[in-house]
Amino acid sequence: MAALSALVRRSVQQVSGLLKRRFHRTAPATLQVTVRDAINQGMDEELERDERVFLLGEEVAQYDGAYKVSRGLWKKYGDKRIIDTPISEMGFAGIAVGAAMAGLRPICEFMTFNFSMQAIDQVINSAAKTYYMSAGLQPVPIVFRGPNGASAGVAAQHSQCFAAWYGHCPGLKVVSPWNSEDAKGLIKSAIRDNNPVVVLENELMYGVPFEFPAEAQSKDFLVPIGKAKIERQGTHITVVSHSRPVGHCLEAAAVLSKEGVECEVINLRTIRPMDIETIEASVMKTNHLVTVEGGWPQFGVGAEICARIMEGPAFNFLDAPAVRVTGADVPMPYAKILEDNSVPQVKDIIFAIKKTLNI
Amino acid sequence: MMLAAGGARVGRRTAGRALRGFSQTATFAIKPCDLYRLEQGPPAEAELSREDALRYYRSMQTVRRMELKADQMYKQKFIRGFCHLCDGQEACCVGLEAGISPADHVITSYRAHGVGFARGLSVRAILAELTGRRGGCAQGKGGSMHMYARHFYGGNGIVGAQVPLGAGVALACQYLGTGAVCLTLYGDGAANQGQIAEAYNMAALWKLPCVFVCENNLYGMGTSAERAAATTEYYKRAHFLPGLRVDGMDVLCVREATRFAAEHCRSGKGPLLVELLTYRYHGHSMSDPGVSYRSREEVQAMRSKSDPIMLLQERMVSSELSSVEELKEINAEVKKEVEEAAQFATSDAEPSLDVLGHHIYSSTPPFEVRGANQWIKFKSIS
Questions:
Q1: A50-66 pLDDT, tens per residue?
Q2: B122: left (phi over 0), alpha (psi -120 to 50) or beta
Q3: Where would you tag: which of A114, A123, B187, B370 has the fewest CB atoms within 10 A of its CB?
Q4: Which residue of A has its CA nearest to B148?
């Protein structure tokens, strides 16, 4: 028994290594994989699959990644394909975009997306707009990835969510994985996509293990960009979220289920292009909508969902105004009690749901 | 001062006369470059074949006429928005191209028409892009600052942003082992952008085959180099990289310097800087008359003493590589070509509204793009 739990605790690589030795065994139906390992696996597989793929960023090589997401990759692929950069976001993001224009498929890591602001001109003006400006002559197959949004105790300059900023821009694809399956499938889709894709990870999710279904263990497992996933079916209210808050929504749903309220929880997975159809179909079934995000309320993801719901067929099915749950409209404070109250908590989601349902 | 072009450059006849009475080749002494961190620079002599001479002449004359035609069309309101002309700087775009091959790569700023032409875009496609017609090289969707061709990455509107991009193109050359180099052009104004220092650093660290080319035309918009830069020795700006300062009004100097620089990169020695001392006759753009921050006398002096086309013409005629009559014929042909291109550019159809939504994403199934209100939708095809 002790041996079995020790086995489960090892990293996926070691486990799959063990499995390979047993020729007559098939892969287990499910496996526990952390979000960090899922991203690592996804990148590893794509690096192996296509020689033009490479990773650059601060500390991605010899340090194994500031958050250890790229652990083991430099050892396996070497200096040519896993490149440590100086602290020069604007410079190395531009270099990555230029490399993509000239035939490579870079993964450009921002240590956190807060630092991407230094480089945002390269992301928007050099990457996102170029295919359009060139009337299709110049594609830019690049991935910008890194942790986004609130962490724990890192204060205002290190806690901003960029989903709305990047989601605003035509020419970009923007994804926001929640669990391990999302993380692996979306990073692989992003790398294979011939467009600039922004992958908004979450630092607090890196260490969280999830069940990894059999199909996710395949080297060709992809989560399509632009499609939301219904994580939990329900009939009374639609709750839409992305990234870490999806977990909070599921917790809220579990609590409410005991009170007889069944929430349909939708994991957006992609911010742009947004799968509004899945949300509309759900709202037409439940007649109620709550959006949940970590970012600031003004001009945010929830605001966009509400605007689009108003414009579409689902509006006439709403029995109450759509409601948003967001981060507090302040720069992130440091003290724990202040920080805790600046991000959406499960109780805030439950409260919003009950208000919407008038219960 | 390097730009004061003095004296005739007399060529020596090194080969017998051909049937038509022209020399097939001539050798010219060219101004030596200022060197930084280099033991040796480009050669002090340039050999020029008749064929190359005619080609450089025709190219420079075409760029000149094309830019002047664009000036005219802008004033007639066929061209809108920004229009940054490079007349005066023809030796740069033609000389740079002469020093590399189509397998190499080039990226530049918004003053891109001449470089785009040198990289293979036709006058027709350039002028029609300026007038925003479907026959434009970007189907009218890019405009003056966003023209692309094979191994030519624009045309970039954000000052200095093209420099890290160029270093990235060079990284791809190194990674893929093509042996190609990337000429990464920027101006004296852009030289003060922080991201350029970042690009120098990474290019040097990784020995990227990137030639950083600073086209120093002495003014960044209305600000002279002295008012913007604590040091105007732009070729020394990456103090850990070698540099050359070149007479950018002499197409042969530019060619030799480019060959030298490209060879330096190709041989694995890493990046270097090339500063081309040049001059633009027009203001910064069509909305700048260009005389509030510099005197008309200065502009006139450059035209009469340092004009790149005139310099090449003098050489060609005095060394019998060509004749005044032959060059006049070329002028007439170029004039006709540019006129016809302008005709096309002003008569071609504007893009259909259908294309408004296209080219958002590459290799993606068609989808719908929102217009000015929720009922207006455009189909988006890759």
A1: 999 999 999 999 999 99
A2: beta
A3: B370
A4: A134
Residue A247 near chain B (CB below 8 Å): no
Bridge partners, residue A115, by sequence: none
- Count other C-beta atoms under 10 Å from residue B7's C-beta: 5
**Helices H / strands E in chain A, number of each:** 14, 14
Task: Give, for A75, the enclosing helix (H) or strand (E).
Answer: helix A73-77
Which of A133, A78, A139, A131 minimizes the C-alpha distance to A103? A139
Q: Is A91 on the interface with B (CB under 8 A)?
A: yes
Residue B350 is given by DSSP the state P
Instruction: Reduce the DSSP state of residue A83 to 3 states and report it.
Output: strand
Q: What is the pLDDT of residue B2?
A: 46
Distance from CA of A122 to the nearest CA of B (A): 7
Q: Which amino acid is at B255?
A: R
Which residues of chain B have a CB within 8 Å of the CB of A96? Answer: 168
Beta bridge mates, B185: B213
**Inter-chain touch B142–A135, beta carbons under 8 Å:** yes
Largest pairwise CA distance in chain B: 75
| pTM, 2 dp | 0.93
Nearest CA in chain A to B374: A311
Asked if B106 is an interface residue toward chain A (Cβ–Cβ < 8 A), one would say no
pLDDT in tens, A244-258: 999 999 999 999 999
E strands in chain A: 30-34, 53-57, 82-84, 105-109, 143-147, 173-175, 197-201, 209-213, 229-232, 237-241, 263-267, 270-272, 289-292, 323-325
Q: From the list B142, B168, B358, which residue is nearest A97 (CB)?
A: B168
A195 at B interface, C-beta within 8 A: yes
A14 SS3 class:
helix
In angstroms, the separation between the Cα of residue B92 and the nearest Cα of chain A is 23
Indicate the burial class of B332 (C-beta count within 10 angstroms; 0-12, 13-18, 19 or more).
exposed
Q: Are strands A173-175 and A105-109 parallel, antiparallel or unpaired?
A: unpaired
Pairing relationship of beta strands B272-277 and B243-247 according to DSSP bridges:
parallel
φ, ψ (nearest 5 deg) of residue B316: -65, -40
Asked casually if ipTM beats, i.e. exceeds, 0.90, the reply is yes
- Residues A261 and B220: their CA atoms lie apart, in Å, by 66
Report d(CA B326, CA A4) in Å as an integer.
89
Dihedral sign from CA coordinates of B196, B202, B207, B209: negative
Tokens 């010219």 — which residue? B28
B15-26 burial string, b = 16+ CB within 10 Å, else e? eeeeeeebbebb
Q: In what order do the strands lie in the sheet with B12-13?
A: B12-13, B25-29, B45-49
Q: In chain B, which residues have their Cβ closer than 8 Å to the Cβ of A130?
A: 154
pLDDT interval class at A19 (50, 70, 90) = very low
Which of A133, A310, A311 is the best mutation test for B, with the most CBs of B within 10 A?
Answer: A133
Q: Do B138 and A121 touch (CB under 8 A)?
A: no
Q: Residue B215: which H helix or E strand, with range?
A: strand B210-216
Nearest CA in chain A to B368: A273
